[in-house]
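User: Here's a structure from my thesis project, written as C-alpha cells. My advisor, Dr. K., wants to see whether a designed sequence matches the one we expressed. Can you design one independently, without my sequence as a hint?
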C-alpha cells in the first residue's frame, strides 16, 4: 500500500511540474522576441531531463512493488502449506481419537461395564452402553449413576432440545447426562431413581422411585414408568408420568404457555408446576418469579423457594431391594 501511495504521489507531483513547466513554456513562447534561442533550448532541455528523472523514479517504485508482491506471494504459499500441515494433524488426531474410542469400547463391552460398579470407590468411571460410545459417568460405591446435578449455578440449564438430548456440563460439577443416554439405559432393564434435594436452610431431603423409564426421541422422551416408593421430599413427579420432555424450542407441555421458557430449563412439564429441577439457579434460595429449582411437596408448594442443590441418580433395579 505504501509503495502504491508513493507511486501515486510521484505521479501527482510530476503532473503538477508538467503543468507549471508547460505554462512557463507558453509564457516564454509569448515573449519569444525577448528571449534568445539559446534560452529556450535550455529551458526545454531542463524540462526533458526532469521528465527522464521522474520516469526513472516511477520505474524504481514499480520494481519495488514487484519485489514486495513476490515476497507476499511466497509468504502466502508458506501459510497455505502450514494450514495444510495443521489440517493434516487435526485429521490425524481425529483418527487416533476414533481408534481410541473403539479400543476402549471393546473391553468395556466385554467386561459388561454398562453401568456403575457396586462396591467400588465413588468417582468417575467409563461406561459403555449398546448404541453409544463410552462416556464418563459419576458413580458412587452403591452403584448409583448421577444423571443430573446442581450445586452452584455455574452451568447454564436454559438449553435447547439438542443440548438436553446429548447432555451438557461437567460430570464432576453441574451437568445433565442427556436424554438419549437416559433412554438407552432405562430401556435395557428396569431402573430405580433417587433424587436428593438441598435448600438454603441446609435441609436435605430425598425421593426414591423403584421404577423409572423414559421413551425414545420419537416419543419425545416421555416418562413411561414412574413408581414412587418413599422419601422425605414427597412425590412431586407424580404429575410428570406420561408427560413429554420440553425445552424452550420444543414446547410439549399441556398448556398454551411454554413452561420451559418461563422456568428457564427443560423438564417433563405438565402444567408448569410441582417439580422443575432444571430451572433457574437462585443463589439466595429465593425465586420471586417462581422460575427457580423447585419440588413442590418438599416446601409446601411454595414455588418462591428455590433449591440450592439437586442430584438425580439411577441404577439397574436390585430385585431383593
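Assistant: Designed independently from the structure alone:
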Amino acid at each position: 500500500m505504501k509503495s502504491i501511495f508513493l507511486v501515486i504521489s510521484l505521479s501527482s507531483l510530476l503532473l503538477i511540474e508538467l503543468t507549471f513547466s508547460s505554462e512557463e513554456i507558453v509564457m516564454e513562447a509569448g515573449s519569444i522576441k525577448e528571449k534568445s534561442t539559446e534560452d529556450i533550448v535550455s529551458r526545454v532541455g531542463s524540462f526533458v531531463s526532469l521528465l527522464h528523472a521522474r520516469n526513472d523514479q516511477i520505474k524504481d517504485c514499480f520494481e519495488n512493488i514487484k519485489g514486495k508482491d513476490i515476497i507476499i506471494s511466497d509468504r502466502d504459499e508458506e501459510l497455505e502449506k502450514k494450514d495444510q500441515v495443521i489440517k493434516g494433524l487435526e485429521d490425524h488426531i481425529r483418527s487416533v481419537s476414533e481408534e481410541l474410542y473403539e479400543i476402549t469400547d471393546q473391553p468395556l463391552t466385554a467386561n459388561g461395564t454398562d453401568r456403575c460398579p457396586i462396591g467400588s470407590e465413588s468417582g468417575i468411571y467409563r461406561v459403555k452402553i449398546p448404541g453409544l460410545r463410552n462416556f464418563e459417568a459419576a458413580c458412587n460405591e452403591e452403584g448409583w449413576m448421577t444423571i443430573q446435578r446442581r450445586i452452584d449455578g455455574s452451568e447454564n440449564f436454559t438449553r435447547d432440545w439438542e443440548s438436553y438430548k446429548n447432555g451438557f456440563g461437567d460430570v464432576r460439577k453441574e451437568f445433565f447426562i442427556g436424554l438419549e443416554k437416559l433412554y438407552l439405559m432405562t430401556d435395557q432393564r428396569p431402573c430405580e431413581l433417587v433424587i436428593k434435594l438441598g435448600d438454603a436452610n441446609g435441609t436435605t431431603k430425598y425421593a426414591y422411585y423403584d421404577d423409572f423409564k423414559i421413551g425414545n426421541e420419537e416419543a419425545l422422551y416421555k416418562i413411561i414408568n414412574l413408581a414412587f416408593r418413599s422419601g422425605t421430599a414427597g412425590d412431586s413427579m407424580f404429575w410428570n408420568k406420561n408427560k413429554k420432555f420440553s425445552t424452550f424450542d420444543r414446547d410439549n407441555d399441556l398448556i398454551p404457555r411454554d413452561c420451559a421458557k418461563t422456568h428457564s430449563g427443560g423438564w417433563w412439564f405438565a402444567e408448569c408446576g410441582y417439580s422443575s429441577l432444571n430451572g433457574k439457579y437462585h443463589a439466595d434460595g429465593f425465586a420471586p418469579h417462581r422460575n427457580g429449582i423447585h419440588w413442590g411437596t418438599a416446601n409446601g408448594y411454595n414455588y418462591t423457594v428455590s433449591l440450592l442443590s439437586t442430584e438425580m441418580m439411577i441404577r439397574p433395579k436390585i430385585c431383593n431391594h
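When you compare it with your expressed construct, this may help: The chain is about 40% helix and 20% strand.
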